[in-house]
Design brief:
With 324 residues, this protein is of the alpha+beta class. It has a single domain (5-187, 222-321), classed as Phosphatase 2c, domain 1 (4-Layer Sandwich), CATH 3.60.40. 25% of the residues lie in helices and 27% in strands. It has six helices and 15 strands. The strands form three sheets. Strands 3, 4, 5, 6, 7, 12 and 13 form a seven-stranded antiparallel beta sheet that branches. Strands 1-2-15-14-8-9 form a six-stranded antiparallel beta sheet. Strands 10-11 form a two-stranded antiparallel sheet. The protein is globular, with a radius of gyration of 19 Å. One of its GO terms (molecular function) is metal ion binding. Keywords: Hydrolase, Magnesium, Manganese, Metal-binding, Protein phosphatase. Belongs to the PP2C family.
């Protein structure tokens, strides 16, 4: 396997039990033309069976695109799913189930996820570089950690819903019945509502190096970490609750190394037409599980397309098969 490149494919951890049938997926991360790898991806099938979901399984997918270093994205990979499981399991049942993105149930999900991002952010801004990821004390010897942060794209998949929580400019899209549905909106400082929020907090949005940046520094307006830009850069995510449909084909999560150069619609079209034998051709990677070889092939095809279009960032892609 080439340095700076990771590939994983996955399928059900309980293949003999039809009631335990998580979706298959494939993921691929490459350092690309960047100097170092700062992207991280985490997948946890059957993360938990919370009361709020009728004791049915919740599957977890997380993508974290670090900046200033990999410390915060690595921290998110190791801890975000642990925290979100804790928060979901604390939620007591409600008589109302998820119904189209409104109501008490949605607010309970949002509250648990919001608390998760808040706790994750608190860990990130207290991160110390003197030891391993288990040491969360601020260290005066490593002031540069105050400028390290990460996007956080988290997708929770239930039998009936796709729940998206996004902080930053990583993105999730849904390929449904030949159409493309964007499930998140990038958090950019020049987005009208984001700029108003930043300025209301006393911050400034400046254009530097052909991009709008918070205080002329950071090109995203929400992130985990980035202690020196608080409170202008918030960790509060935005949400999407999407009812699953039998016409759903797949879910695509990607870092900006993909989306900067490949449009949403082209991504869906490429996945739809991806030949199975095309698995990571030219990338030196072989899928670890044959059962989801087509999803790994799709992820590899998108990564190769982004590289061919001269993406300058790390490129990370996760493709989840939603066919039921």
């Amino acid at each position: 396997m080439k340095k700076g490149l990771a590939s994983v494919s996955g399928e059900s951890e309980h293949p003999d039990d039809p009631s335990e049938s998580p979706p298959v997926y494939g993921l691929l991360s490459v350092v690309g033309r960047a100097r170092e790898m700062e992207d991280e991806i985490s997948v946890k099938m059957n993360l938990c069976r919370p009361e709020i979901n009728g004791y049915q399984p919740v599957h977890y997918f997380g993508l974290f695109d670090g900046h200033g270093g990999r410390q915060v994205s690595a921290l998110c990979k190791e801890n975000m799913h642990v925290i979100i499981e804790e928060e979901l399991m604390l939620v007591k049942d409600t008589a109302e189930r998820l119904t189209g993105g409104e109501g008490e149930a949605v607010e309970l999900w949002k509250k648990a996820i919001s608390k998760t991002f808040e706790r994750m952010d608190a860990m990130a801004i207290m991160l110390c570089g003197c030891s391993d990821l288990e040491n969360f004390n601020v260290c005066r010897h490593h002031p540069r950690l105050s400028v390290v942060g990460s996007t956080a794209m988290v997708v929770l998949l239930t039998h009936d819903y796709i729940i998206v929580a996004n902080c930053g400019d990583s993105r999730a899209i849904l390929c449904r019945n030949g159409n493309t549905v964007q499930l998140s909106v990038d958090h950019k400082p020049d987005r009208e509502d984001e700029r108003a929020r930043i300025e209301a907090l006393g911050g400034k949005v400046l254009f530097v190096a052909n991009a709008a940046r918070v205080e002329g520094v950071l090109s995203i307006s929400r992130a985990i970490g980035d202690r020196f830009l608080k409170p202008m850069v918030t960790s509060e995510p935005e949400y999407m609750f999407m009812k699953r449909d039998t016409k759903d084909r797949c879910l695509i999560l990607g870092s900006d190394g993909l989306w900067n150069v490949v449009p949403n619609e082209l991504c869906c079209a490429m996945v739809h037409n991806c030949p199975q034998e095309d698995v990571n051709h030219g990338l030196g990677v072989t899928g670890q599980r044959v059962g989801s070889r087509d999803m790994l092939a799709a992820a590899g095809l998108l990564v190769r397309l982004a590289m061919g279009r001269r993406s300058t960032e790390n490129i990370s892609v996760l493709v989840v098969d939603l066919r039921m």
